[in-house]
């Protein structure tokens, strides 16, 4: 009988030991997850404290296809370009190599340093690509005739109001993945998550003027 109980206890403890992870493993996993979260939050959140909650947009880089789609919709255009939230600078670099004079607005100082260093390594002159540590919500964008924005669905209506007030009539706006809710598209490129949308300010304004209760 005693033998049987011992056998049962032995079996039970074996089951328990295989089911429960070793404390050292749990500690390592916890440390790893904390580290990953720490690095992620460093890249995704600095500078965000000053931006109101409803306008916060985290970092997510454009895919290669998305960047190509942006450039397709900018074909034939020239002049100054603002990338609203320039991240690691990939859209600014693509546009500056197509001849635009670009400014990347970015509040994440780590991404900003990375983009500036990349511009330095690549030997891109500052007249072609500049990265500024500025909140674009608080910046007058009236000097730009091209604007690119890969942000979040919840901020597009607010951004639309700002751009309507500030951009010149000959400006083109490229929205990535998330279209403006009430603006008529000029054209679009790509599909799914890489889709980008082009809007010409003159057409947007004349469309909105026809809408009742719209002040343009
Ligand atoms: C979705 S990412 C897009 C990055 C880049 N444009 C691209 O396509 O790869 C949005 C970026 O906007 C930045 N951002 C968010 N709010 C901002 C603000 N108010 N002013 C400047 N940059 C902002 C974020 O830090 C983030 O890098």
UniProtKB/TrEMBL annotation:
<keyword id="KW-0812">Transmembrane</keyword>
<keyword id="KW-1133">Transmembrane helix</keyword>
<feature type="transmembrane region" description="Helical">
    <location>
        <begin position="24"/>
        <end position="44"/>
    </location>
</feature>
<keyword id="KW-0949">S-adenosyl-L-methionine</keyword>
<dbReference type="GO" id="GO:1905706">
    <property type="term" value="P:regulation of mitochondrial ATP synthesis coupled proton transport"/>
</dbReference>
<dbReference type="InterPro" id="IPR026170">
    <property type="entry name" value="FAM173A/B"/>
</dbReference>
<dbReference type="GO" id="GO:0016279">
    <property type="term" value="F:protein-lysine N-methyltransferase activity"/>
</dbReference>
<keyword id="KW-0472">Membrane</keyword>
<protein>
    <submittedName>
        <fullName>Si:dkey-190g11.3</fullName>
    </submittedName>
</protein>
<dbReference type="GO" id="GO:0032259">
    <property type="term" value="P:methylation"/>
</dbReference>
<keyword id="KW-0808">Transferase</keyword>
<dbReference type="GO" id="GO:0005739">
    <property type="term" value="C:mitochondrion"/>
</dbReference>
<dbReference type="InterPro" id="IPR029063">
    <property type="entry name" value="SAM-dependent_MTases_sf"/>
</dbReference>
<keyword id="KW-0489">Methyltransferase</keyword>
<comment type="similarity">
    <text>Belongs to the ANT/ATPSC lysine N-methyltransferase family.</text>
</comment>
